[in-house]
Amino acid sequence: GHGKGVEGFGKSSWYDAFNTTEESLFSTRSKKRHAMKRRMVAHGFSAQSLQLFEQFVDEMMEKFMGKMDEFARTQQPFDIYFWFELFTMDLMGELALGKNFGAIEAGKPAKYSSLVEQSQRFSNISGVLPFGKANVKVLSWVPIPRIQELWKARVEYLEFARTALEKRFRDDRKELVPSGKARQDIMQRFSTSNTTLVWVAGASTGSVTMNWMTYYFCKNPEVKNRIIKELENMFPENVDGSQILPFVKLQKLALLENAEIECLRLHPPIGYSMPRDTPPQGAVICGHYIPGGVAVGVPAAIIGRNETVYKNANTWSPDRWTDETADLATMKTCFLGFGYGSRQCIGRNVANQFVMKMMATLLLRYEIELEDPGLVLGTKEFTIQKPDRKYNVIIRPRKS
């Protein structure tokens, strides 16, 4: 991010690999252009827009809970992370294009999801090549079948995004929100490049965060039960979770939010470093002089487990964020779950809204347990830090 003390560190050529039809909010290396792009879309992520967007979150959650009710009736083990991915796919479709992909109802991923992952893999590979802005073109010429497969996926994905966005803008229907005003999509001010940014950032990161929260709640029933107790006190008329919970009240539930933050500390969706070039005069980092123009970075997954910052860093403990004996200021400064400074995730509040609503409703509505109570889940990474294996949960209606 662009934070205090890092102004001389510009974004490295790695970001050029993520340019598509043009620079996106993520890929632009210019601080001035980044600020301009951010101002253009900031209203779409404002508190007012968040309130308008909540009805679409609720609609997608109702569909999702309908599927969960079926699993609760049969009590058959199932892959909940898979369903979280379907939910966020549809939700990002609503957010970006005003229309979901029908993934939840179909019970299978939208076509674009596999294209997204392959396109991101292509970008990650091309980003480490030494040819600057020519990285993408150079890699597209490499006659290795797997590389060509990734390149074709990137081209197909960009065409999919372009046509989907054009269709949305051609749609003259005035969709109304409850206030009677015409619906405003965040993407009405976005280009194709930023459409891909929302789909990837929103869908992939949100689903994997809910996955980790589910896993840790199953592993830590004491924390889970404390949250359920707080939810029951907060919603006495809805202790069975039959109604989708409103975000305005959930914002006051610190323990649930701290559980989310703790998952992001241990398993930040983007775990690797976002490289920056040292300033022309070089820089001294941890006592070592680094010449100018060298790409450096701090992986979020590493600093999040730094024992000098976080006591018992490998232990999941939401209470650490309210521990008055800890150096909370340093802990918060080193937390990179959403990035840092002016470059931190612009959709943080959107993600926090649907993650909090989803997890709170699930906890009130169902008893959730791992099919294998002894499961120790690790991570694998390629753009997004995902679980290292598939796993199942069993849910049943909760007895309030």
UniProtKB/TrEMBL annotation:
SUPFAM superfamilies per UniProt: Cytochrome P450 (SSF48264)
Keyword Heme assigned: yes
Binding site for heme: C345
Entries under Pfam families matching the protein: p450
UniProt cross-references to Gene3D superfamilies, sorted A to Z: Cytochrome P450
Signal peptide from the UniProt entry: none
GO MF, one example: monooxygenase activity
InterPro entries on file: Cyt_P450 (IPR001128), Cyt_P450_CS (IPR017972), Cyt_P450_E_grp-I (IPR002401), Cyt_P450_sf (IPR036396), Cytochrome_P450_monoxygenase (IPR050121)
Keyword terms: Heme, Iron, Metal-binding, Monooxygenase, Oxidoreductase
Cofactor or coenzyme needed: heme
Family: Belongs to the cytochrome P450 family.
Protein name as it appears in the record: Cytochrome P450
Species whose genome carries this gene: Mollisia scopiformis (Conifer needle endophyte fungus)
Source species taxonomy: Eukaryota, Fungi, Dikarya, Ascomycota, Pezizomycotina
